[in-house]
Each structure stands twice: as C-alpha cells, then as structure tokens.
Design brief:
The structure holds two protein chains of two kinds.
Chain A (H helix, E strand, L loop, with lengths): L1 H14 L4 H16 L4 H10 L8 H12 L3 H14 L5 H14 L5 H18 L4 H11 L10 H10 L3 H30 L9 H27 L4 H19 L8 H31 L2 H11 L4 H15 L5 H18 L4 H16 L6 H10 L3 H24 L1 H10 L4
Helix pairs in contact in A: 1-2, 2-13, 3-13, 4-12, 4-13, 5-6, 5-11, 6-7, 6-8, 6-10, 7-8, 7-18, 8-18, 8-19, 9-16, 9-17, 10-17, 10-19, 10-20, 11-12, 13-16, 14-16, 15-16, 15-17, 16-17, 17-19
Chain B lengths: L1 H33 L7 H7 L5 H23 L14 H43 L19 H5 L1 H23 L48 H7 L4 H20 L1
Helix pairs in contact in B: 1-3, 3-6, 4-6
Classes of the chains: A mainly alpha, B mainly alpha.
Amino acid sequence: MNAVVIFGLLAILMLTGMPISISLGLTVLTFLFTMTQVPLESVALKLFTGIEKFEIMAIPFFILAGNFLTHGGVAKRMINFATSMVGHWYGGLGLAGVVACALFAAVSGSSPATVVAIGSILLPAMVKAGFPKKFGAGVISTSGALGILIPPSIVMVMYSVATNTSVGALFMAGVVPGIALALTLGGVTWYRARKYDYPRQPKATWGERWKAFRASVWGLLLIVVVMGGIYTGIFTPTEAAAMSAVYAFICAVFIYRDLGLKDVPKVLLNSANMSAMLLYIITNAVLFSFIMTNENIPQALADWMLGHGLGLITFLLAVNVILLLAGNFMEPSSIVLIFAPILFPVAVKLGIHPVHFGILMVVNMEVGMCHPPVGLNLYVASGITKMGITELTVAVWPWLLSMLCFLMLVTYWPSLSLWLPQQLGML
Amino acid sequence: MINKVLNHLEELLVTFLMGAATLIIFVSVMHRYLAGVEIPGLQDWLLSLNFSWAQELCIIMFVWMAKFGAAYGVRTGIHVGVDVLINRLSDRFRGKFIIFGLLAGALFTGIVGALGATFVWDNGAHYAIFNFLGVHGEDLYEGPTTPDLEWPTWMVYSAIPLGSSLMCFRFLQVAWGFSKTGELPHHDHGHVEGLEEEDGLAVDVDVYGMGDNLHMHDLKHEQFGERRSGDDRREDGDLSSDSDRRHGQRRNSDEKQGGQQ
C-alpha cells in the first residue's frame, strides 16, 4: 500500500514538470511527515551524508575532464587518425566517425558530450565530402551513445553508487560490449554506405597513419591513464578521474592550445553547474531509496516476483521494457538512480551478476538517448545539423534497430560483459 | 546591486571549489607516488608532508559545490525534469504548471533549509556561538568533529541550510521573473569555446540546456529542434524541415547573445 502511495506521488509530481530532484525530495518529505516515525533530523543529515562517498566524486571529475576535451583539439586529431585508418573502406568518413566516437568515448564519460565533440567537426566535413546529412547525423548520434558504455562512464558511476557495485569492475566489463557495439554500428554504416555507394576517402599510407597517430597520441594516452591506472591499482576510480581532469586540462591548454588560460574558469563553472545538478539528483535519490529500504519495498517486490514464478528470462525482458519506456521520459542518470535500487535486489535473487545487470542498464540507457522525446543525442545532433527531431528520428533508425538487437545480445549473454573482468581477476 | 554581488560570489565560490578540489586530489596522488621515489632531500621533505586529509577535504568541497551549484543551477535552468507532458500543453496551462513547479522547488528547499538549520544549531552551532559570545549555556552539545581534519561538523554541514536557502531564494526569483516576463532562464553558454568557426558550426556545449523535453519550455523562446507546443503546431501546420531550420537559426542568434553576457 505504502509503495503505491510513494510511487503514485512520485509519478504525479514528476509529470507536473518540476525538476526530478525536487519531486524525489518532496515525495520523501510528504512520506516522512505523514506516514512514518523516522526522525526528520536524520533526513537533514542524510542530505549531507548521502553524497559523502569518495566514489561519487568521480562524477564531477569526469565531467570536468570531458569539458576540457570537448573543445576540439583532441577530438579533431582522433578523427584524423580514425579517417587515416578506415577512411578508404565503404562508408569512409562515416566509419571513421564510429571509430572516432569509440576512441573519444574512451576518454569521456558522457554520450551527448561525445556527439558534440565528434559531431561538430565531422558532420560538416561529411556533408562537404558528399554524404547525405541524414546518414552522417544517424551515424554520429548513435555512435555517440558509446560514450556511456566504453569506460569511463558517468552512468556506470551512478549505478555503482545506487547498488554498491565496484566501479572498476563495471568499467572493465564495459570494454568488450563497447567494442562489440562499435563493430555493430560500423557494420551497419559499412553496409548502408556500400548499398547507396557513398564516397570513400583515398587510402592513407602508413606514413600518414603514423603521423596522424603521433598527433593524436596525447589524447589516446588518457585511455592508458584511466584504464591502466584503475586496472593496475595505481589509482582508485575517483583518483583516476581527477588525474584525467588535470591531464585533459594540460592537453587542452598547453599541448593542443585550443583553450586559453582565461577560458579555464568558464569551463570550471560549466562543469560545476552540471555536476551540481547531477549530485543534487543523487542526494535526493539516496533519500528516496533510504525510505524505500526502510519500507522494505524492494524486498517485497522481489518476493512477489519470485512468488509468481517469474523466471530469469521474463524478468530480464520486463526490465528491458521498463527501462526502454522510462527512457522516453527521463535522462539516464535519473533512471539509473531511481530504478536500480528497486530492480537490483530482484536481479540478485534471480542470480544475475550485479556487473552484468549494470551493463544491461547502461545499454538500455544508450538506446533511450537515441530516440525522442528526450533522447539527448538527437537534440545535440539537431543542434549541429539544424535538422528537425522527426527527420533525425528517421535518420537514426537503421542504427537504432541494430542497437536493439545488440541489447538483446547483452541481456541474454552475460559472458560478453563478464569475461574481461573475470580474466583480469576483478570479480 | 546586492543581487549582482550575490551572483558573482556564488559563481566564484563554485568555480573555486571545483578547481581546488581537483588540484588537491592531483597533488595528493602525486605526493603518494613521488614520496616513494628516492630523490635525496626531496623524498624526506615529501615524507614529512601528510595528505591523509585530502579525500575528506575533497568530499567537503564537492558537497559545498553541489549545494551552491544547485542554487546556481536554478538560475541557469539546468535542472532536468520530466517535461514531455507539459511541453505539449497550451501556453496558458503550461505557464501555470511552470509556476507550480518552481514554487514546489522553493517549498522543498525551504523546508530542507529549515531542517538543516535546526540540525546544525543543535549539533554545535549553538554551543560555538554562545561560547564565542561568552554566554555559557548549561548543557549545550559541543557537537562532533570530522575524522581527519577535525573540523566541527556543524561548520561543514552548514552547507545544507546555506545552500538550500539560497536555492529557495533562486526558485522564488525565477518564479517572479517568469510571472513578470514569461521567460525562464536558458542555459546558453554559446559556442564551444576555442572551437574556431571553420572547424564546425556553433554548438551549445551544454547538453542539458537544449530544447529537449527534460526542461520546461517557457513562453518566450522558440525551442530548438522540436515544435514548441500545441498552439505552435496548429499555426505551423505540419512539421516541415523548413520551420525547424528557422527555429535553429533563431536559437543560434539567441546563443550568440547568450555568449556575450
């Protein structure tokens, strides 16, 4: 009964359009004032201690690093490198876009940021090279989604906060599915480019490739810093995030010089603004899951589901449907923070590995970012190409369809995600 | 005037906390590894430094940043919501929902501010202030301190009442502005800084600030990428790429103005 009231109230408050953090908070307050004896002071304390974990602090650092990197230099050189490697195949620049997105995703933790960084440079170039606008927009908006699957990933940090799963293991688990998804998207690009005979780039010599690699090596080194650092245990994920922020700053300001020192405070302020927004949602989501646990709602849900003989396959299918539906209304971080604490206990009871479940959620979020009404990637792509959302929705469907197939693969084939962290001895 | 000073203070504080926290963690990690390298003189000096407080300070700084940044976020309109439904309403109804949402925000942050203030007062602020003033309360609670830095927790936790009250003020301010002009703050940071024109088109670097359905569409601006509301759709007839392009350009000029502010 309480569960119905809580969720009903939350849903109504959210649909009035107020910020998600506020609707979460108001639900909690209403509940506390009317239905329980939990002392209110402990709530005020929870507001501070809710985000008093060092793991959470990786989020502002990754956002800061991403904002330094979005300013052109790194992305441009990655695109050049990718073009020199795969540009001569069918799909040329489109294929290079997929590769560049995958590379950029490995240094940035957010998927719209990946679309901004790669798209704003590559899309005009693709139009100039004779690709239809639709094709370019489709490739980049979907490949940009790799940003949250290939580590580092802000959504994965959110999941680990909500469920106490190891960030390091999640990051490692994202590598193989990330590469697999990049191959899938690249495959679709290649196929469509061959079918419609889109232009190809002249083949680059190995000398040119080496030159492009040398130019982009500073950005690529960041992958080594983050992943290598976490894997070898030199850094904790949060420290790795802080290191990558400082490294990205040095890259942008001193090595590639696409940012002046005078721009730095603005970048800091922008990053702080976005991080604060996300941290504020986390604070209130922590409160929300605190009262849910207090009311034993996740446990009750788990018992109810198991009592009705719900099997693994049906549960996973239901999870996918729920998350895809939620992707129509909310942005990924909020979805993970609200749904993970509810679904996680059931998943664990059914014997689903926490890390596998995390990857499943992330891939779901990726799909949600690529379709309207709230797909952030589409809005970013629309900002770059000046195409309408409806037009873009049509443009992305071949890739989106392949992503849905990929989602099924990830859902029912746990080893795809779990193999690498197991090989590395992280699980 | 006072408002301007407050705006600047808020921005300065948030920017400083973000930068300083990053530097602190960077220095402490560097210290941890360099102290293990045998460089005569330098090593001894490094070993004599103690950075065990770095994590705690970083957390405190980020929590402060989160509280004040959230207030700044109200002013810049960055907070995401579920606005699919209300963005499809007519202007008049949407306006009412927007006001309701903003006032709800003010209510929540107001309550939290009050709760936080009580908590901070009871856990040491009362004692500290009375002691400072030379008044001796009989049985006032001195309050705990943080583990590493040994700062009184009430000082650290005062981020909640201060930040929340500021946020409450911001919500009221935005609501007032909206009821006067029908305008909501839009998160325009203009171009990607440092990206030269020839490299690409102007892009709004802030991905949460676009005209998506995560934010409330106000009554003044044309939205980017998508038709705005029921009224609009009827006027425009079917959605053609032409009208979208127009929206895009309109937005673009908006951005330029935003960038100069």
